[in-house]
Design goal:
It is built from 18 helices and nine strands. The chain is of the alpha+beta class and 398 residues long. The longest helix has 20 residues, at 167-186. Residues 1-11 and 206-213 have low confidence and may be disordered.
Length: 398
């Protein structure tokens, strides 16, 4: 094969890039070539699938979940399977036989997953919550079932009794089952699609129209933001609300933001511990640097075009908007929560997506009596927070 042909074949096979894969958020199939594709699901999971022909039969093979399986990893696995297929062999048949012989149950899949997951939860309360929800609602029904055979109908049987009666709990149960099935697929203990995909359409979303708790489930945040942008309220009100969600800051911090605190070039917002005009700005009284995502920067540019005063998001009289203005906006949307609840939504999202507890705590700037440790967190985790806030923005605006 000449050099030009090699380059043409490489382009045909390698259509995706690592950067593009990381940014994809719309539900769908994204082809890399040669039968390799990335599937982006409704719950945000990205998984690799390879379609190939073995002995004249068209088959589909799961290669794992991104980012645990990178683009390069998926390509290597694909090439190995294609090479075996050319010889008439199914390279995953051995793994299938092992799976059938071991018969990994859902309880075992949960224990395997949680052995890793609990190391990421430094908060003992979250560890206990994980175990309690599984032992109470899931394991009595699915615990002894082979994880490879569980169907969407069985997932529905777990959720239906609590979907309307305990909506917040049901959301957490669904999140956790989804993560366990993804892990089982990644470990080779399940080949079929994640059975959690699409169950919310069957269950319905009526129970979310009025939420009787302070924190909106993190899965519902994108829908709230889409609704927020259509609300007939002052532009500054909509902008500050989305900004506080994107930055996971307190309502008072976002409403009191000053242009003097914003560094658009470095994409940082430095909130002072206190100032002469408004007193304490941060609850901890300690300066906090907030990395700004691309969407947060876009909001700031939009806000800059509205006025010339020192406040980023002023009300009609040039003063900070009131917290009640934002709370009323939530009530008008049929939500009983508070703006502060979006910090809890961020924390839940971070916890469910594998973010280390100390990093998400650094984002939230929770008070730490150990000032040396607090300063260490702020500097050590800054780059991780930059990347994390961009990921959070992708979810929020999805």
């Amino acid at each position: 094969m000449d050099e030009a042909a090699k380059k043409s074949r490489t382009r045909a096979l390698n259509r995706l890039s690592a950067v593009k894969v990381s940014k994809l958020k719309d539900v769908g199939l994204y082809e890399d070539g040669g039968g390799l594709r990335l599937v982006v699901t409704e719950v945000g999971t990205k998984r690799w699938v390879l379609r190939l022909t073995i002995n004249g039969q068209r088959v589909e093979r799961g290669l794992g979940v991104w980012p645990s399986v990178s683009l390069d990893d998926a390509r290597r696995k694909s090439e190995d399977l294609r090479r075996a297929a050319r010889d008439g062999r199914d390279a995953q048949s051995e793994a299938k036989r092992a799976q059938r012989s071991t018969g990994v149950t859902f309880r075992q899949a949960f224990e395997d997953f949680f052995a890793v997951r609990r190391q990421q939860l430094s908060n003992g309360k979250h560890v206990a919550q994980w175990s309690t929800t599984m032992e109470t609602y899931v394991l009595p029904i699915l615990g002894r079932r082979p994880v490879a055979e569980i169907t969407a109908a069985e997932v529905l049987s777990v959720l239906e009794p609590i979907w309307f009666a305990k909506p917040e709990t049901a959301s957490r149960v669904l999140q956790r089952m989804n993560a366990i099935f993804d892990s089982a697929i990644l470990r080779g203990n399940r080949e079929r699609a994640n059975p959690c995909i699409g169950v919310t359409r069957e269950l319905g979303t009526e129970h979310r129209k009025v939420m009787h708790h302070a924190a909106l489930p993190w899965q519902d945040v994108p829908g709230f933001v889409r609704d927020l942008r259509q609300r007939p309220v002052l532009p500054a009100t909509k902008l500050v609300f989305e900004f506080l969600i994107l930055t996971a800051t307190r309502s008072s911090e976002a409403r009191g933001a000053l242009w003097a605190e914003i560094d658009l070039e470095r994409r940082h917002w430095t909130i002072p511990g206190s100032d002469d005009n408004t007193g304490r700005r941060m609850k901890s009284g300690v300066e906090h640097v907030v990395p700004l995502s691309s969407r947060a920067i876009a909001i700031l540019h939009e806000a800059r075009g509205l006025h010339d005063g020192p406040l980023v998001f002023p009300g009609t009289k040039g003063q900070p908007l009131s917290d009640n203005t934002l709370s009323k906006l939530m009530r008008d949307a049929g939500l009983a929560g508070t703006p502060h609840g979006f910090r809890s939504a961020f924390k839940d999202w971070a916890s469910e997506t594998g973010v280390r507890d100390e990093v998400s705590e650094a984002v939230l700037a929770h008070s730490d009596p150990d000032k040396v440790r607090a300063a260490y967190r702020r500097t050590r985790f800054l780059q991780e927070r930059v990347e994390l806030m961009e990921r959070w923005a992708c979810h929020v605006t999805g």
